[in-house]
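Consider the following assembly input.
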Amino acid sequence: MFERLGLIGCGLMGGSFALALRRAGLVRHIAGFSASPSTTQRALELGVIDTQAGSAAEAAAGADLVLVAVPVAATETTFAAIGATLGADTLLMDVGSTKRDVVAAAERALGGALPCFVPAHPIAGKERAGVDHADAALYQGRHVILTPMATSGASQLAKAQAVWTALGARLVEMTPAAHDTTFAAVSHLPHLVAFAFIDGIARQPDGQAILALGGPGFRDFTRIAAADPRMWRDIFLANRQELLAQLRAHQQALAQFEQQIVAGDGAALEQLIAQASGIRAAWHMDSFKPGT
Amino acid sequence: MFERLGLIGCGLMGGSFALALRRAGLVRHIAGFSASPSTTQRALELGVIDTQAGSAAEAAAGADLVLVAVPVAATETTFAAIGATLGADTLLMDVGSTKRDVVAAAERALGGALPCFVPAHPIAGKERAGVDHADAALYQGRHVILTPMATSGASQLAKAQAVWTALGARLVEMTPAAHDTTFAAVSHLPHLVAFAFIDGIARQPDGQAILALGGPGFRDFTRIAAADPRMWRDIFLANRQELLAQLRAHQQALAQFEQQIVAGDGAALEQLIAQASGIRAAWHMDSFKPGT
């Protein structure tokens, strides 16, 4: 389907996309670039890419598919570096966890190449980042959110839909704003809460001894608190408006629980818990149906 | 080691204890009682118990080991029902998630049998409760907290230590107060936060559609929100003082994150995240060392 993938950012997300595309027989050649030369070198050694590009622009030049899989904060610089090299039919996608900021960056930096761009966010990841953990099956069966812009080319959108579908992903389309609200709620806020939860215990005098007694519930609840600090700093700041709105909704729910505990109102407390418990017991991952 | 186990409450925790004790060859006969006759009947069918007792007192009579594995709120009634039947050398334990309330209940209800009682809290469980999920390996390698009372008999304490050790558990001794602080932090607060998190999203206009897009991080972070409403209502109320103190510490940590996000202070935000991330990345379950 594609002659040449220009992969900018050869980490877990980008590397997994390259491996999946190759395994599906959908690309002839993969040129890769990472800001860190050792990452690009390692991607070559692992067979994730075929050739090392010396810059983002060099990776993008002549490619009919370009994937930008860099930290959110580096997106605009990358767009500015590659905009002039993109062909009219090239499909450009990102994999960022926030979308309104990426759309704004594209509008500022891509110039005449704006029709090439279809913003994408695959809902997939691993606890351990880096190209060494890249996995051709990472996107299999997982949601991929596309937030097409009014400027996105029709052929680019069709190709974006086709390529993710061919990789076994489940496509969901929404506006950048709806995306940012949704993931502020189900991803960014849980990370914020998990970080704050650990910090709130750690600063207590017996914090270390207390943490050492966490069991299986603690383990799962806090797993995401081990995530990368710079990545999450950038996500929190990039989506701060929606994140703060979700945080306020959560704080209100917490205050409601607190109020019933202080009042010793067992019936009201049980009702609050039962609502959450019923919803969570019925929840299944990857169950989104368009229109729900 | 024991002639007769009186098992009061034949659910997941009690049933698993019975199976483990039997597998280790540490008991000759197990008499069981549950408030629900169908549970006692099922425990008999599954070979968890040898005979059905008609009441808690009947299960405890003549037993040299009695395990009370009932909901926290039913502990005092159970103690009152069995106190007079306990022999001087009998070991009585519970498995409750809170300890100061259980100690107070024992002091009020056990009378002359108080020396029999060694409060216990095994840090183990499963997502699905009930005797059908009882598992002889549930306590293998897991922490069991003992909070001996000044009144606990020396021989009872020695037997309690010996039996959990023989089942492969890792013993930790602490005061009831230290226990309740610790588990308010690492168990009760995470449940409260997870419940409130789900409720806070569910009440939003698009709550259901938002929840449907949760990924692996959401799945793990919210797993404990599917827990049993009555059990957690009782735990929250039984340990409310410590839980509210931990909630306040958490709310302060959340407010600190909020402040840095509002200020757009990336360096301070990264530092808060890095502290949590470093602690959680180094954390391992069942790593408690006495004296840490």
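The beta strands of chain A are 2-8, 27-33, 51-52, 65-68, 91-94, 117-118, 120-122, 143-146, 170-173. Ask yourself how this observation constrains the way the partners meet.
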